[in-house]
Amino acid sequence: MVSYKQLCARCKKQFVLISGNQFPVCYDCQKKELSGEIKDPKMKKMFKLPEELYMNNPFLRDIKAKYLRFGNLTEKQIDAFKRVSKELLDASLKKSTD
Where are the domains of the chain? Predict the structure, then answer.
């Protein structure tokens, strides 16, 4: 899929890397949405990732924002979040050991 940079639709100051038909929102603009409290211990453990992963991946931010807004996720959303976060964590660990 083709990726390109586009200005954030909210602040119009920072560029955001997007692919496909996404709404371009930078991390700084979306940070307020992601700061809600997660009460479910299972979900709290799942969303406990390094902040840099959320900064660099709009997909992870979107899933967390949807959970905070609606209070639940589908099994497909949970599986996709776990798979992507595992891949990114593995890549960052591999990158740091090189």
Answer: 1-25, 31-97
